[in-house]
């Protein structure tokens, strides 16, 4: 998790790194509460939101970011953290900007 978050921070302007980083964090947090809690503690939520903010017009970054946040939000504490960090706004923004993309809308 640390390596992914670190790579995302170091290459914030490279959309492919952000896309793949969000996908990896999403996969690691899928149905895994231990990883979800660890990810939040290691700034994974912030990394995802930074990626989504930096690449608002890149559909795949938005798709993978929403996927990752959705998986992380299965944990109650992460729900509060995502909300506090304007994650709901990021998701709504992604869904609005990419309204014709079914993968973002999921």
What do these coordinates show?
The chain has about 110 residues and is mainly alpha-helical. Helices cover about 75% and strands about 0% of the residues. The protein contains eight helices and no strands. Helix 2 packs parallel to helix 5 and helix 5 runs antiparallel to helix 7. It is globular and about 35 Å long. About 40% of the residues are buried. The mean pLDDT is about 95.
Which secondary structure elements does this structure contain, and how are they paired or packed?
Elements: H1 2-10, H2 15-29, H3 33-41, H4 44-54, H5 59-72, H6 76-84, H7 87-97, H8 102-105
Helix pairs in contact: 1-2, 1-4, 2-4, 2-5, 4-5, 5-7
Largest sheet: none
Distance between the termini: 25 Å
Helix run count: 8
Overall 3D shape: globular
Query: What does the average pLDDT come to?
Result: 96
Indicate the radius of gyration in whole angstroms.
12 Å
Order of helices and strands: HHHHHHHH
Count of β-strands: 0
Instruction: Give the % helix.
Output: over 70%
Q: Please state roughly what percent of the residues sit in beta strands, choosing from under 5%, 5-15%, 15-25%, 25-35%, 35-45% or over 45%.
A: under 5%
Structural class: mainly alpha
User: Are there runs of 5+ residues with pLDDT below 50, and where?
Assistant: none
